[in-house]
Amino acid sequence: MNHSGTIANKRRRVTTIVLIMSGAILLAAVLTLPKIAFSQSNRADVLPNAPPPRQIGSSTELSAIQISASTNKTCILKPSLMKLVGTPQQTEGPYFVDGMPNRSDIRSDPVDGSIQQGIPLQIVIHLYDVDNGSCIPLRGAKVDIWHANSQGIYSSVNDQGTAGKKFLRGYQITDHNGTVRFTTIYPGWYQGRTIHIHVKVRTFEGPQESLEWTSQFYFNNSINHQIHTQLPYSNHGPPTTLNEQDGIFTGASTDGMLSNNSGEHLMFDLAQQGQSYIGTFDIVLNSARSVR
Asked: I need a surface site. Which of 180, 226, 248, 275 has the fewest CB within 10 A?
């Protein structure tokens, strides 16, 4: 009897211990529930206020719906100084050639199929017209761009031995968002000029030109130098003229809008993406100041 009683007592103690341990586990689980809920509540509060992912290109890269809505809003386009008077114009230069191909990728020469070598550059241009302070995407406008290759040479120039060539030239028509896109290479330099890209915008009423706007785009000096440490640019050597040493960059705009340093308002919003670059610019046109 004593032996049986001892066994029974041991069983009761084991059962009691198991019950106590189960109760402790259950209590611990209950106590952690508010903490989990608090943590999830905090996460919901924090995420909406977290910094958004970095956007490539201009901060005014809008969706089609946003752009459509922008017609009833005041322009908030960079640079802020130009938001009501338009983007400054600069000289066309000696190398504009009309009648270039309608194409987005301008790296090739349609004459012989050769492709210009260099660091890829995507160009995104948004066109807006200003009407009493409202931003209106300019649809159906013809946008020409042209620039030198990695060695500072233009196509279609007799004295550069490129007559008949069409590389790094072309045009696009703005879409319903007022946008055109080009694929090209980062431009090279030539004597007396900083690195730049030429641009011309035209609209037509039937066969007649109704508006013309001409200017140039520029790049950051340090990126220009960095690019020219790499092939094929390094074969031509580092740029010899900085932005602030360029007479057109530091000079007046051709439309009388600015008396000096017009190039400061014509800098690409440039971002690196892998081994290539994306340059974005918002052109704000003021019809009263554009050549007709």
From this structure: 275
Helix (H, G, I), strand (E, B) or coil at 283: strand
Percentage above 70 pLDDT, the chain:
68
Residue 122 to residue 273: CA distance in whole angstroms: 10
Residues 27 and 123 in one domain: no
Number of CB atoms found within 10 A of residue 86's CB: 23
- Strands of the 196-205 sheet, one edge to the other: 169-173, 142-146, 196-205, 208-218
**Residues 157 and 27 occupy one common structural domain:** no
Strand-pair category, 179-185 with 269-273: unpaired
On whether residue 135 sits in a domain, the answer given is yes
Q: Which two tokens stand for residue 192?
A: 């007396």
Helix (H, G, I), strand (E, B) or coil at 4: helix
Average pLDDT of the residues in 161-167: 97
Model pTM?
Answer: 0.73
Whole-angstrom distance, CA of residue 154 vs CA of residue 146: 8
Neighbours of 129 (CB within 10 A): 23
User: What is d(CA 21, CA 182) in angstroms, rounded to the nearest whole number?
Assistant: 71
Q: Are 60 and 126 in contact (CB under 8 A)?
A: yes
AA letter at 169: R
The answer on 75 and 16 residing in a single domain is no
Residue 272, domain extent: 64-285
β 142-146/169-173 pair status: antiparallel
pLDDT digits (tens, 9 = 90+) for 58-102: 333 333 333 332 233 345 555 544 555 789 999 999 999 999 999
* Residues found in the chain: 292
* Number of structural domains the chain divides into: 2
For residue 207, give the CATH number of its domain: 2.60.130.10
Question: Taking a C-beta distance cutoff of 8 angstroms, is the pair 233, 281 a contact?
Answer: no
Cα of first residue to Cα of last residue in the chain, in angstroms, is: 119
Same domain, 122 and 20: no
User: Which tokens belong to 122?
Assistant: 């995507």
